[in-house]
C-alpha cells in the first residue's frame, strides 16, 4: 500500500479542495493511481470543454507536445488538468524501450517544474520511477508524490469481504483469503474477479465458486500442471498447457514457472520443512501457496526434484542453440517429469 502518511495527506488535500500544482503517482497498484487521478479531476471541472481543459499525453519523444501543453491555458474556467502517462522522465537506466531523459531534456523538465502555473494541475502517472533521480526530487519539491503499492493480502481479503457485503453477499474471510491468493495481484484484478463472483453467486460465495468462476493467475495454474505431473495425468497437464497457449502465454514463461515451483519444493525438501508456518517463513508469499508447495514437495523424491531444477538450464541451452523449439522443449520436460 502507498505510504500511509502520503495517502492521508493526499486525502486531506482532496477533502479541503486544496490541490497541489503537481502530482506524481507511481508504483505497481494501478487501481489506486486511477482512483486518485479521478478524484483530482473531479475537483477541476472542465466546463464542457474537455478538449481544452483535460489535456492528456501518453509518453512521447516529441518535446514540442509537452511544451505546448505546459504553456497552454484553461478555456472558460480558471483551472485545467494536464495528465502525463508513462513519460519515463524519472528513470535513470535504459531498459528495452524505456529511455531515460538526456541532459537537455532534464533541463527542460527542471525549468517546467520551477515555473508551474497556478491555472494547471499537472499529474504524472508513471510505471517506471527511480525515486533517487534528481528530476523526481525536483518534482517532489514542486508538488506531491505518492507511491501506490499493492495492499497486503489480509487487507485485500478484508476489502473483498466488505465489498461483497455492501451488495448483499456473504463471503467468509477464509474464502476471501483464498480468492486473493489465486489471482493476479492488485485491486484491479480483485475487483474484476469479485464482480464475477457477485454476479454468479446467490447469497453466499463459497470456495468452490472461486474455483469455478475466477480466472486464476498463471503461477496458480502451474499448480494444476504439477498436480497432473504427480498424478501422471497427461490429459490434465496438457489441458492447462493448451489453455495457456490459447492465452498466448510464453512457453518459456510456463517452463520457468514450473522450474520455480520445483525450486521452491526442493528448498523445502532440503530444509526438512514439515509444516505450513515454517514453509511460509522460508518462501514468503501467501499461506495458501506456501501450503501448496509443502504439500507437493512431500509427493516428490529428492532426486526427482533435483533433476527438475537442474534440467532447465540444459533445456535453455538446447533452445538457444536451435536444437528444439520452446513448445517442444516444454512438452519434453513435462513428459520427462511424469516418467519419473
Mean of pLDDT:
93
Distance between the termini: 43 Å
Give the DSSP E fraction (strand runs of 2 or more residues): 5-15%
Radius of gyration: 25 Å
Main beta sheet: strand number and arrangement?
Answer: 5 strands, parallel
Which bin fits the share of residues in helices? 55-70%
SS summary, helix count: 17
Structural class estimated from helices and strands: alpha/beta
> Biggest sheet, strands in spatial order?
2-3-4-1-5
Spell out the helices and strands N to C.
HEHHEHEHEHEHEHHEHHHHHHHH
The gross shape turns out to be globular
Number of strands: 7
What does this structure look like?
This protein has 340 residues and is α/β, with parallel strands linked by helices. It is built from 17 helices and seven strands. The chain has a five-stranded parallel β-sheet, with helices on both faces. Helix 11 crosses helix 13 and helix 13 (251-270) packs across helix 15 (287-297). The longest helix has 20 residues, at 251-270.
Amino acid at each position: 500500500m502507498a505510504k500511509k502518511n502520503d495517502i492521508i495527506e493526499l486525502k486531506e488535500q482532496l477533502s479541503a479542495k486544496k490541490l497541489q500544482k503537481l502530482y506524481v503517482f507511481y508504483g505497481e497498484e494501478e487501481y489506486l493511481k486511477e482512483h486518485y487521478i479521478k478524484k483530482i479531476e473531479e475537483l477541476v471541472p472542465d466546463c464542457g470543454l474537455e478538449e481544452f481543459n483535460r489535456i492528456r499525453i501518453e509518453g512521447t519523444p516529441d518535446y514540442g507536445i509537452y511544451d505546448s501543453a505546459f504553456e497552454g491555458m484553461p478555456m472558460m474556467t480558471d483551472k485545467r488538468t494536464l495528465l502525463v502517462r508513462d513519460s519515463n522522465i524519472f528513470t535513470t537506466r535504459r531498459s528495452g524501450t524505456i529511455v531515460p531523459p538526456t541532459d537537455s531534456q532534464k533541463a527542460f523538465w527542471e525549468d517546467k517544474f520551477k515555473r508551474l502555473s497556478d491555472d494547471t494541475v499537472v499529474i504524472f502517472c508513471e510505471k517506471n520511477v527511480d525515486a533517487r533521480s534528481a528530476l523526481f526530487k525536483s518534482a517532489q519539491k514542486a508538488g506531491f508524490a505518492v507511491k501506490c503499492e499493492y495492499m497486503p493480502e489480509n487487507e485485500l481479503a478484508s476489502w473483498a469481504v466488505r465489498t461483497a457485503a455492501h451488495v448483499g453477499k456473504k463471503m467468509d474471510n477464509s474464502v476471501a483469503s483464498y480468492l486473493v491468493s489465486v489471482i493476479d495481484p492488485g485491486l484491479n484484478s480483485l475487483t474484476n474477479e469479485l464482480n464475477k463472483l457477485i454476479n454468479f453467486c446467490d447469497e453466499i460465495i463459497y470456495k468452490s465458486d472461486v474455483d469455478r468462476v475466477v480466472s486464476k493467475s498463471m503461477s496458480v495454474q502451474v499448480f494444476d500442471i504439477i498436480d497432473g505431473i504427480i498424478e501422471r495425468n497427461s490429459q490434465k497437464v496438457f489441458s492447462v498447457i493448451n489453455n495457456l497457449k490459447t492465452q498466448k502465454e510464453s512457453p518459456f514463461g510456463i517452463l520457468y514457472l514450473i522450474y520455480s515451483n520445483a525450486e521452491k519444493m526442493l528448498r523445502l525438501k532440503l530444509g526438512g520443512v514439515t509444516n505450513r508456518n515454517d514453509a511460509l517463513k522460508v518462501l514468503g508469499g501467501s499461506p495458501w501457496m506456501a501450503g501448496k508447495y509443502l504439500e507437493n514437495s512431500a509427493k516428490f523424491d529428492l532426486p526427482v526434484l533435483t533433476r527438475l531444477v537442474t534440467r532447465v538450464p540444459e533445456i535453455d541451452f538446447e533452445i538457444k542453440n536451435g536444437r528444439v523449439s520452446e513448445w517442444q522443449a516444454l512438452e519434453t520436460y513435462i513428459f520427462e517429469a511424469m516418467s519419473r
